[in-house]
Amino acid sequence: MDKTTFTAARMDRLTPYVAGEQPKDKQYIKLNTNENPYPPSPSIKDAILSELENLYLYPDPDSFKLREAIASDCGVSPEYVFCGNGSDEVLSFVFYAFFGDNRLNDRPNAEPMLFPDITYSFYPVYAAFYNILYKTIPLDENFRIIPADYSRPSSGVIFPNPNAPTSVCLEYNEIRELLEYHKERVVAVDEAYIAFGGESMVKYIDKYPNLLIIRTLSKSHSLAGMRVGFAVGQPHLISALKRVKDSFNSYPVDRIAAAAAVAAITDKEYFNKTTAKIINTRERFIENIKEIGFSVSDSKANFVFISHKTVKADILKAKLTDSGILVRHFDKPRINNHLRVTIGTDKDMDYVSEVLRKFAQ
Amino acid sequence: MDKTTFTAARMDRLTPYVAGEQPKDKQYIKLNTNENPYPPSPSIKDAILSELENLYLYPDPDSFKLREAIASDCGVSPEYVFCGNGSDEVLSFVFYAFFGDNRLNDRPNAEPMLFPDITYSFYPVYAAFYNILYKTIPLDENFRIIPADYSRPSSGVIFPNPNAPTSVCLEYNEIRELLEYHKERVVAVDEAYIAFGGESMVKYIDKYPNLLIIRTLSKSHSLAGMRVGFAVGQPHLISALKRVKDSFNSYPVDRIAAAAAVAAITDKEYFNKTTAKIINTRERFIENIKEIGFSVSDSKANFVFISHKTVKADILKAKLTDSGILVRHFDKPRINNHLRVTIGTDKDMDYVSEVLRKFAQ
């Protein structure tokens, strides 16, 4: 019997996402998955311990307390907030709810959803998962998103702001152009890295019924290990996401994740301190490596996207790995001579600078 | 502007699952969501604390240590195990990977997937989510699954064993009939409640390439609040589930959930003690309420499915709620005169018996 008969035909569409490597063999300086180098707020410990006695009970399916904490942090009310198991799950629900087979697509020629050609590489994976037609729009030669290039019929738009892996950020006036052109479609702004210097679109949420913002606590609040992501948008968008969740998994956010997330979000002082440190380290690192012939995109993220004037990226990546440093290299058109380097501690980055200085000057 | 234009047409298919109520207004004896009345193994506390320092790092995307612990518990090797965010997420991936649009469905008349008419009410929700054709097969008048009734072309079969909300369990010889008839299709056995007296199909896993078992730690290991579920099957089935996960969310099981689950699974003695207590309480409770005119299905679960010879289920439910006891009533054909009552502690169940004795004798 041919075992392939067991899987449904839709499985042939899938090209799974490949996350950055998580080596088990030795200790590396891990600058390949954009984790925060600092531990989460110490306040999470008591929050976690206080949930231990409740673990035999299901969590609140609607994560109300967590949505309250996020809402308060974002200056909106809880019905503007949806929570999920990391922003990856939230993004998947966004694709299901809003993109690809919209009502207007009953026209003979379906309109594709749009995202940049160089961007978070999970987007085409989600599109394939739900059989959503998409079209990628090229970044310009400076890796910038050009809003005018998105002025075409679509079933929706998504992009990270700042973009990944390029680290470049759009401003409100540019995003407004997208929101206004696509006013009958959802424009999803993936703010995974917004804490590190960009301007969040949250303050414009009441102005645009088609604006949906997606965030994660993985990077900004050092909770990559806990899986908490969320979306902020007007209640009609949030209700749609809730309908998707309730048709997939009633309780994607567990009790401890919710409690830890509330504690981390509430400790604003710690958040401000750690993000300021990372921004400061990033600027120092950029200065150091520009001196030795690197070009660096204007970063508003906790990573930088770099290339060297003479030494190829794959060679540099190998040298860094040999020196115990993991970074990410994407073997893809236009960016295969770049490296994405997460910003670690000052000590981490001084060591990276030192290694780069040895091999790339 | 009509706001409904924002959602994709596929959203119209959804009829979200409705979980048992989680009241916030007062303390109830909560026998409505099949939670375990005992706390999880005390060993989870240290396991959780030991993960705190790693929370800034992503979890292992393949949950290897957890899969090892489950594999060892089930007597298989880790490549036979897939883990997800509760068995609800695992079930959703099973529907996506194996049901509904199989290759043989390129025939003019697509074959539906099959499940019982009275069963876990999330199954039709998943089917709608992925646009999967299904057909329900009636239980017999004693709420038993009759394997011969499933002898018809299908794109796969799923059922809980013991079934929910009926609590009735099939035996190996009956399930074998399903596996052999549908040998080119996946037969998924949802063993959410198998710890409470049924015989697991895990020992037959090498015999049937189409057998997939789904379990959860929510009930058996008192971890409903932590969201850990898993599937056991031959590696070709597990790889398919991994492809689905990696196209949806790289890290659905967080660090603390994985650590707590490993500790709970490893504490076999505690597991044996608590499940034995629940089984014992269940048998006492059944005996007590049979005396006062209840008929009770033969339960192999941590709940019982009951009806009274004269007093209607909705009236009894209201009386129980007034007395501070929550149970589940499904307002559906064939079972709207039944109540599903989770087995709590002896003290809980003595109180339930006492209340029932007052209103139903």
Detailed description of the structure:
The structure is a homodimer of 361-residue chains. With 361 residues, chain A is an alpha/beta fold. Helix content of chain A is 34%, strand content 13%. Chain A has a 5-stranded mixed beta sheet, sandwiched between helices. The mean pLDDT of chain A is 94. The first copy, chain A, has helices at residues 44-51, 64-74, 86-98, 123-129, 172-181, 217-220, 235-245, 255-266, 268-290, 313-322, 346-359; strands spanning 29-30, 81-84, 113-116, 134-137, 157-160, 187-190, 211-216, 229-233, 294-296, 303-308, 325-326, 339-342. The N and C termini of chain A lie far apart (59 Å). In chain A, helix 3 packs across helix 7 (235-245). Chain A is built from 11 helices and 12 strands. At the A-B interface, helix 1, helix 3, helix 4, helix 7 and helix 8 of A face helix 1, helix 3, helix 4, helix 7 and helix 8 of B.
